[in-house]
Amino acid sequence: MENNTSLQQQLLEAGVHFGHLRKKWNPKMLPYIFAEKKGIHIIDLNKTVENLQESAAALKSIAKSGKKIMFVGTKKQAKEIVTECARRVNMPFVTERWLGGMLTNFNTVRKSVKKMQSIEKMLNDGTFDSITKKERLTLSRDKEKMEKVLGGIAQLGRVPAALFIIDIGHEHIALAEAKRLGVATFGMVDTNCDPNKVDFAIPSNDDATKSIAIITNYIVAAIAEGLAERQNEKAEEEAEEEVVDKGPRLDIDDAGGTDKERGGRAQGSRTGPGANRPGGGNRGGAPGGQRRRTTGGPGGPGRRPGGGGR
Prior knowledge:
Helix content is about 45%, strand content about 10%. It contains 8 helices and 8 strands, in the order αβββαβαβααβαββαα. It has helices spanning about 1-15, 45-65, 80-90, 105-125, 135-150, 170-180, 210-245, 260-270, and strands spanning about 20, 35, 40-45, 70, 95, 160-165, 185-190, 200-205. The strands form 2 sheets. The protein has a 5-stranded parallel beta sheet, with helices on both faces. It has a 3-stranded antiparallel beta sheet with strand order 1-3-2. Helix 4 crosses helix 5 (about 135-150). The longest helix has about 40 residues, at about 210-245. The protein is globular, with a radius of gyration of 41 Å.
């Protein structure tokens, strides 16, 4: 409870509770509005703390599973904060302009990113030394323009698992694309927005720099925890595998016994007492192994009794 109180106090000091003018409000925000003061709606910080912690837990779980979370904040007040926070946890971000189709037409956007990376590589390794100065300058400018818009998603190989949006009204295109693809959405929602448009709404002032900073930093801290837990689990698994690999190993057959014992059994089976039984299959061995020819009568061996020739 103390943690909640201190968090609530920090949010209060950052001005997270200040909403918009009453005439700009969205009626769907009614459950999150505490009061009205001098024509301005005041957000209920109890609800903010509750929703912030719920969102942080969900994002921590996503980060722990190894999936990517994209930060979106193209407002002037949010750009620097979003860039710094997203880089801290190595997550993709968009702070300049949301290109239409950045999620729904992701393959085409990836081609632009690859083009940007190839130009950068060629400029650095001297491939373009043979071209004119003007052409090199044009390519450099193209790369800078692309980097400004696409730099934050350069390492993103697939559509992210979630979007964290500052001001869902301002970033309505990003929100619509995420909804279309079934990507989880988290957002700072002010009193002039519809909280039902995002999966996880954090009722808060999305215009003040301090308010944006405290909410985004709290979310990033949770993501960092998820990533750290993922690393620890991996390290533990690797340690367990090493212990198993280093353990003693005996080459034991299905019937039991080592190679040496198997050899003894095999030899015993060839030289055992049953190998040369009387009358057995060893023809050159014991007397019982030879066939006897029956002698005839007085006519001599091989002849029928009583008889000479025919």
